[in-house]
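Summary for the lay section of the report: proteins are chains of building blocks that fold into shapes. Here we show the chain for Bifunctional diguanylate cyclase/phosphodiesterase and then a coded description of the shape we predicted for it.
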Amino acid sequence: MTAVSNPKRTPVFRLLTIASSGIGSFVLGIWGLKHGLGDGFAGISMDMMVAIMAALCALAASVAAMSFFAGVDESADFVFNETHFDKLTGLLARPAMVGKIAEAACATSRTGEPVFLIDIDIDRFKQINDAIGYTQGDELIRAFTKRLQACVPARALVGRIGAGEFAVLLADHQIQGTMESMVERLIDEMMEPYELSTHQQSVSLSVGIVAMPKDGVDPVLILRRSNLALQNARAGGVGNWSVFDSEMGRVADHRQWVESELHTAFERGDFDLHYQPQLDLPTGRIIGYEALIRWNHPERGMIPPMEFIQIAEETGMINPIGEWVLRKACSDARHLPDDCFVAVNISPVQFMTKDFVGIVRDTMRATGIKPSRLELEVTETAMMQDRDRAAAILKELAEMGISVAVDDFGTGYSNLSYLIDFSFGKLKIDRSFVSRIDTDSSSGAVVSTIVGLSRALGVSIIAEGVETESQATLLRAAGCEVVQGYLFGRPAPLKFRLGDEHATDEVRRVANLH
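The coded shape description reads as follows.
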């Protein structure tokens, strides 16, 4: 951006400014000279003094004016470059891309020709940057930029809108062939390894695409929707791409609503626990109940756990919610039959909190529940985040007399070495195997294998998701004698029995579910 390119400071404007500054300085100089020295000084006539003074003042004023306006232009130029161009790559920065998207939106509204925004993100770039170091990370970004510019059409606009995120803006007529073939080719070429100064670096990409004006013309909305398409592509696997559709927007809006409402719902007391019985097949006796959280929103009704648990984990709300679930389940367990336990699901985030064992110990002390009447269900994923720490936690829980069940067993890690290192008391066969046990011989084989493994390890076994008599019969034949599912009882709140001498303000429930 040169000085003359600023419409507010044309050459005529500059000349008038310098002239006015010079004349003003000249008049002030004469007035000061006349007032201070009279008609002459040191033998020099007044006319000569005026001429010298005028020349000096005009020169000083001109230099000052030029210096000032040059400085203003340099500052404007600096600010423009800082806000419109990425320092590392020289590409357009996010603010500039927003402006270019706005210009493209105006053009497409006039001409009707579609304009596409392609959002390209390097998967796990932060982890890559941390692993190889920031210097090598910068080198990777520069190499990625150079290759990207070579892969897209010559007149396409390319910008860097995030640490490892890039945007390409191009019109329909710039695309050679179909959009599908162009994007597939772009992904294949961009995922080729990069030769850095110290090593060869591989990357994976996710790509989201929006079309203007079909998907909107507001630049901020367009960027949001391209990112939604990108996230959808990432969920589909490595090197995937996705085109925005309206359903993604509805899902994102619902997610945003859940995220903003969680804290209020917790403070308002929207959450409750329902209990599903666990049955011993040989005796037909209920031996325990699994506590399952439910969110009953005053306006939207019942919201399934699958719609808010993951969001609670990502926002940190899972810790207060999980602690509340544990405390309430332990309190409710006091009103169950003495030979029944309560099983509580523990989130991976909750399991790895700083003092999880201390929270469990304090909860048991506050509620007065016996350790033998509490069972914690922990997934393989939770235990594998930090094996050493998980082993220490499980050992402490076992020493306290609390049983731990490995939830959703068989769907997580294929490496089963953790079964040797970890202290646990039960394996829980996932419902995905149970649902197919009567139609798929492979599922039956898996169930039989898990039952045999549990016996070899000396731990208990339970199957969840049992919905038919056929499934129950086959499970029992395979050696699994404890089951849970809709066939034996749906999750339901504990009903309060009037006159229960153990009822409190916090828990006014008893064990009669049926």
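Put simply, here is one thing we learned. The chain has 18 helices and 18 strands.
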